[in-house]
Design brief:
Elements lengths: L1 H20 L13 H45 L4 H9 L2 H25 L5 H14 L9 H37 L14
Helix pairs in contact: 1-2, 2-3, 2-4, 4-5, 5-6
């Protein structure tokens, strides 16, 4: 269930972060004066697009395992018929669900690589968060083939990376707010202009 919620929030969260923190994200894709900002913006857009695609493709599989397979297991326990578990396994290994799931995980891997590229020019929390979260997304498929301890470690790396990205955004927002307040003369930094002796 937590995995479903995480995938639902992944792409919108990355979209908000990239729009706020990545220069060139909102520029048109067809710009010719790319430079570093254009390349970073392109990688940021690819991150969001691939995260959307990957989430859309893996969520049906996660949904079926969370709800349908759980119901099938309860039915098997209630009626004492374990034959239903064979149908469960046939669904999990059926060509269409497995293909959708596999392609979705590959799209998430692409999103992870693009995330690393888009955050590499940054510093501090943003750069480390992008690196860890990007590695977590890029290795989502291989982690299914490692022992439980490896899967737990993978989840920690991905989670820490996403938390660092969020923290970097809050810090950036607060810093930008202070700059805006100073620029418009709001807050304690503003002093009334002297009008001379009355």
């Amino acid at each position: 269930m937590f995995g479903i919620v995480a995938f639902i929030l992944l792409a919108p969260g990355l979209l908000v972060w990239q729009r706020q923190a990545v220069p060139g994200f909102s520029d048109g894709a067809g710009r010719s004066d790319a430079g570093q900002a254009g390349r970073v913006g392109g990688a940021a857009r690819a991150t969001v697009a691939l995260a959307w695609l990957g989430s859309v493709l893996v969520l049906p599989y996660y949904g079926a395992e969370t709800f349908a397979l759980g119901a099938a297991g309860e039915h098997a326990l209630t009626v004492g018929d374990v034959e239903v578990l064979a149908a469960v396994e046939s669904f999990r290994l059926a060509p269409v669900p497995m293909t959708m799931f596999g392609v979705g995980l590959l799209a998430l891997a692409g999103a992870g690589i693009a995330l690393i590229v888009s955050t590499r020019p940054g510093a501090g929390l943003a750069r480390w968060g992008g690196l860890l979260a990007g590695l977590g997304l890029a290795t989502y498929l291989p982690q299914f083939f490692v022992p439980a301890a490896g899967r737990i470690g993978h989840g920690l790396v991905l989670g820490i990376g996403l938390v660092l990205l969020g923290m970097s955004l809050f810090g950036r927002t607060a810093h930008s707010g202070r700059i805006r307040r100073f620029a418009v003369g709001v807050g304690p930094t503003r002093r009334p202009a002297s009008t001379g002796p009355r």
